[in-house]
Amino acid sequence: MHTVIVTAAIIHKEDKILIAQRNKHAEHGLKWEFPGGKLNFGEDPKVGLQREIQEELDMAIEVGDIFEVVSHRYGERHILLLCYTCRYLGQNPVARDCRDFRWVTPAEMNRYDFTAADVPVVKKLQKLLDKKEACP
Ligand SMILES: Nc1nc2c([nH]c(=O)n2[C@H]2C[C@H](O)[C@@H](COP(=O)(O)OP(=O)(O)OP(=O)(O)O)O2)c(=O)[nH]1
């Protein structure tokens, strides 16, 4: 039993956010998530997240502030998911180490089967969007 630290990017392009589909044979295969991955030992989380986005989507990003931290248990495995708000720098993503990716609004996220750990993150994004719509 151990805890794995995972970083994930909330990358905004106008009103859309980039989501990625996990490879078929990976853990939680075919589920949707916020792109990112496991932190290496001793690695700075923001640097680790930039590395993961480069590996997964062949794209450079600027990592900003923490958006949400989720502690989630998948049976005997515990993940601490650090989600950062990130700035899109204009490069088109390439599905290097994921099955697919999409730019979606928070409302559209309901159509995707996200990993269980991501559910509170999706809800938080949707709540923020609703607030924005209520007070333009
Ligand atoms: N990147 C990412 N991982 C997530 C999210 N939600 C969630 O439960 N996870 C889980 C799935 C995996 O168990 C773990 C991340 O592992 P990973 O397989 O993506 O990491 P990695 O790219 O470093 O993988 P590897 O080198 O071990 O192949 O965190 C999320 O939104 N983003």
TrEMBL record:
Its EC number is 3.6.1.55. Coiled coil: none annotated. PROSITE patterns: NUDIX, NUDIX_BOX. The keyword DNA damage applies. Residues 1-127 form the Nudix hydrolase domain. One of its GO terms (biological process) is DNA repair. PANTHER family: 8-OXO-DGTP DIPHOSPHATASE, NUDIX HYDROLASE FAMILY PROTEIN. This is 8-oxo-dGTP diphosphatase. It comes from Desulforamulus putei DSM 12395. The lineage of its organism: Bacteria, Bacillati, Bacillota, Clostridia, Eubacteriales.
